[in-house]
Amino acid sequence: MALEGWSRTIRDGWLAEIPEDEEVELIEIGGVRLPQIMIVTHPGQGRRPVELTMRLETRDGVPRCTEVTLRGDEVLRADLRAVPVEDLLEAAFEATPEPAPVDVLNAWFEELAAGTIDEDEVAARFDAWRDEHIGQGRRRVVRRARAQGRRKITDQLLIAVAAIYKANIGRAPVNAIAEHFGVSNRSASSYATRARRAGLLDEIDRGGRAPEGET
């Protein structure tokens, strides 16, 4: 299921939206579905307005802020410090709609077609369904996913990374690490680099090959 053309004010001046020209998939995490991409904007206000745009993405099962852009006559360090990234991320993902099941929607649209309810009633039922089934739980899901996404790089993890790498020489070792830990290839490559720096892959050259004569 996907969302497109959705927007909602999440606090004074701050707007979370999925552009009308972009169809965004919903990613299931912790029993709720979160948009893969979302944009948060603020037009700027006061005597020295600075416009802000944030890009939020759900990557590897974790809601993240991947980009922040500030525009104005001048952008100062204070402007950067004033951006409540974590709060805005949580508020934006909490505000996104959780679609009602298809059978529930079909029943509502049948009533709409029969003329027993109008479009305002459908919208009211949608909001009521979301509040009843999701409510504040979405913020907890986002916090939990982000906490789990901050994986600690321990000696034990690097040892496991090195073992997986060695077991998959010649068969895309970085892909194997990514699949094992459920992370992106970029994160998996970072794990491998840290394992090499720790001396756990000294016998493997940077091309991912074991020395001649070894298997």
What topology does this entry show?
Elements: E1 2-3, E2 6-11, E3 14-18, E4 24-29, E5 32-35, E6 37-42, E7 51-59, E8 62-71, H1 77-81, H2 85-95, H3 102-114, H4 119-133, H5 137-149, H6 155-167, H7 173-181, H8 185-197
Antiparallel strand pairs: 1-4, 2-3, 3-6, 4-5, 6-7, 7-8
Helix pairs in contact: 2-5, 6-7, 6-8, 7-8
Describe the protein.
This protein is an alpha+beta fold. It folds into 3 domains: 2-95, no CATH class; 102-133, no CATH class; 151-215. The chain is built from 8 helices and 8 strands; from the N terminus they run ββββββββαααααααα. The strands form 2 sheets. Strands 2-3-6-7-8 form a 5-stranded antiparallel β-sheet. The longest helix is centred in the middle third of the chain and has 15 residues, at 119-133. The model is unreliable at 211-215 (pLDDT under 50).
What percentage of residues falls in helices of 4 or more residues?
40-55%
Helix/strand-derived category reads alpha+beta
Percent of residues in beta strands: 15-25%
- Run of helices and strands: EEEEEEEEHHHHHHHH
What count of structural domains?
A: 3
Task: List descriptors.
3 domains, disordered C terminus, 43% helix, flat, 215 residues, five-stranded antiparallel β-sheet, 22% strand, alpha+beta, three-stranded antiparallel β-sheet, 8 strands
